[in-house]
Amino acid sequence: MTSSIYFYYKKDHVTKETLELLEKLAISYQFVVTKKSNVADYIICLGDDGVFLQSVRNTGFRENCTYIGMSLTNAHGLYNDFSLEEPETLFQTLTFAPVETEQFPLVDVSINDEVPFYCLNEVSIRSSIIKTIAIEVYIDNLYLERFRGDGLIVSTPSGSTAYNKSLNGAILDPTMPCFQMTEIASLNNNDYRTLGTSLVLSHNKKLRLEIIQDGNDHPIIGLDNEAYAIRNINNISVQMTNKFIHLIKLPNNNYWERIKRTFL
Ligand code: NAP
Ligand code: MN
In which residues is NAD(+) bound (predicted)? Predict the structure, then answer.
């Protein structure tokens, strides 16, 4: 059966000519090019990791397709395995190599107890003013600590190499279904005390963050690279989902190879 391909890109990043070339190549390798992301077998994201994150969000975190990142330059990000500099390699691989996939877990984030959102990298909560923000941290129903500082982020394993890494969080293998909370500049004094290290929680735990309503309760919330537009934030709950997205798995791109090529 012929497989279908959907190309995701930002209009001002990819020229009409490039897109036509990719579509022609796809057809010459017996693929069908579709304009419907909800039915495509392969979703090919043309751009860097930031565009990849948007493509996954804007196509609904589909579980029954394979996401493939194709960078516009020679540089590969964490999620990018192919490059527009050698476009044919992608179609040759899909045609001639056994295509396996690797699962990347998502977290589920509910803000003010409303319908949850998925995140592939992390949810970030940051003070939007010069003053610090105070947040009470609960694990399941256990009150753990009261944080005061610039903010907190909660990341997935594949997001652990992004914002979390800049905050000295650990890099986690995505085959472990767990998530990590990391502090952004915590105050630690006789009034406010936190563990001060990042926490890794197992998939059956629920993290609840209660924003202290002291006037600084309009933080900036980031869901991967998208800003959440709501005003007053009272609480945020984060847990693991049973949902995964699937990335192409080539002989040389297991997770630790991705890390090596991106950082070392
Ligand atoms: P950006 O500000 O352009 O991205 C920051 C950097 O993070 C870029 O180099 C991006 O790679 C890289 N990146 C994204 N996801 C990654 C991952 N899972 N592993 C390793 N590197 C990753 O914004 P963006 O490109 O839209 O990416 C959004 C992400 O930026 C957020 O989800 C957050 O994790 C991260 N971020 C980091 C900081 C920080 O480190 N201080 C602050 C804010 C946000 P590309 O160049 O390939 O896009
Ligand atoms: Mn970027």
Answer: 49-50, 121-122, 148, 150, 161-166, 185
Q: Which residues are catalytic?
A: 49
| CATH code for the domain of 168 | 2.60.200.30
Domain count of the fold of the chain = 2
pTM flag (> 0.85): yes
Which of 228, 224, 143, 137 shows the shortest CA–CA distance to 183?
137
Atom of ligand 1 minimally distant from the CA of 75: 47
Q: How many CA atoms lie within 13 A of 225 on its CB side?
A: 11
**pLDDT, tens only, 106-134:** 999 999 999 999 999 999 999 999 999 99
CA of 166 to the centre of ligand 1 (A): 10
Residue pair 118/245 in contact (Cβ under 8 Å)? The answer is no
Per-residue pLDDT tens digits for 236-247: 999 999 999 999
* Structural domain containing residue 167: 105-242
| Best residue for ligand 1 mutational test, from 49, 54, 57, 102 (most atoms within 8 Å of Cβ) | 49
Ligand 1 binding pocket includes 48 (Cβ within 6 Å) = yes
Tell me how far apart the alpha carbons of residues 218 and 165 are, in angstroms, rounded to a whole number: 25
